[in-house]
Design a protein that fits this description.
By secondary structure, the protein is an alpha+beta fold. Helices cover 43% and strands 28% of the residues.
């Protein structure tokens, strides 16, 4: 027996390895623990775990969990499952809708979690994965947010399921999201950041560029083509529906380094780190995605396209004197060029 396996056995407080379970389940749990122990040594921001439950029973227990999990809840490994269960304030589940492939957020309260455990189990079992965020109360009445990402495996012979995954502390991100919603930085209709966020993004990244922390960034301005006709022909409720849907479509097209927000009216802004070629690829992805998407209102298809202008920071002029106003002036010119050249296209003016 290796030293690692001996150490794992000494720290093991689970049920499966020492219980009357199938060889296949024991082997999977044992292999999973060894893998997660190795991951914990190199991925310090992740809290690995293996949870298990019998399909016809309410109680969940842990076969393994990173030491940081116990430290966070100030409990022993034996008490971890109960401590975590008692500390949960709510759970937020994120899933993609089947039709539009958009992300939906569902908030489940502590009481709903207790009462609806069987239905929730069936949902994750059917999908084969967990994608959720827990709001958790810890000592001194502080709260943390833990993102849970895991895969679900079912062992029918044992009437048992296991969840193998990682928890990540996303407190800063979730608190910022809540703050934006409270102080009105999020647009009510589109659920996108408002223009005021763009001002801050430009301020921060102009500073990063001038200090040499990044090499370039791109500002994008997006305008819905002939949007007035949508309102005139179908009504303002249809127009609002189109804008909200458009926001979801564009949001689903962004990558980690991309930002999308509402500039005002039927105009949106985009931002990405990188040179003008990176920006052009981002803008073209947006344009094509919108063009191909079937926008509907009351079962009627409403064709929608967008014109996009963009400019990179290094195209504007001297970096030491670069301002947000200069970038906005140039991106406005780019958008005007896109509309003048026929709409439903991307344009960049140096």
């Amino acid at each position: 027996m290796t030293q690692q396996k001996e150490n794992i056995q000494k720290q093991y407080f689970g049920r499966i390895l020492d219980g009357r379970y199938s060889v296949a389940l024991k082997k999977r749990v044992s292999e999973g623990i060894e893998t997660l122990v190795a991951c914990e040594k190199v991925a310090h921001r992740l809290i690995p775990y293996i949870a298990a439950w019998h399909e016809d029973r309410k109680i969940i227990w842990y076969e393994y969990a990173g030491r940081e999990f116990c430290d966070l809840l100030d409990c022993s490994f034996k008490d971890l499952a109960e401590s975590f269960r008692k500390s949960i304030i709510d759970q937020r589940i994120y899933r993609y809708t089947n039709r539009k492939k958009e992300v939906e957020e569902r908030i489940i309260t502590r009481d709903e979690l207790r009462g609806g455990w069987r239905g929730l189990r069936e949902e994750v079992k059917e999908s084969g994965r967990v994608e959720a965020v827990y709001k958790v109360l810890i000592s001194d009445n502080n709260t943390v947010w833990l993102k849970d990402q895991a895969s679900i495996e079912t062992f029918k012979e044992d009437n048992t399921c296991i969840s193998i995954g990682f928890l990540t502390d996303v407190t800063k991100e979730m608190e910022l999201k809540d703050l934006f919603q409270r102080i009105g930085y999020i647009d009510e209709l589109t659920k996108l950041p408002r223009r005021s966020i763009l001002d801050r993004i430009l301020e921060v990244n102009i500073g990063n560029l001038q200090r040499g922390h990044i090499e370039d960034f791109v500002l994008i301005l997006i305008d819905v083509d002939h949007f007035k006709l949508v309102n005139d022909r179908h009504g303002h409720l249809a127009g609002d529906h189109i804008l909200a849907t458009l926001a979801d479509v564009m949001r689903s097209t962004t990558r980690k380094q991309d930002e999308i927000g509402r500039y005002g009216g039927e105009e949106f802004y985009g931002f990405t780190i990188g040179d003008i070629n990176t920006g052009l690829k981002f803008a073209e992805r947006l344009r094509k995605r919108v063009e191909k998407y079937s926008f509907t209102y009351k079962k009627e298809i409403i064709p929608i396209t967008v014109s996009i202008g963009l400019v990179s920071a290094t195209q504007v002029g001297k970096l030491e004197s670069l301002t947000a106003d200069q970038l906005i002036f140039m991106v406005d010119k780019s958008l005007y060029a896109a509309k003048q050249s026929g709409r439903n296209r991307v344009a960049s003016v140096a």
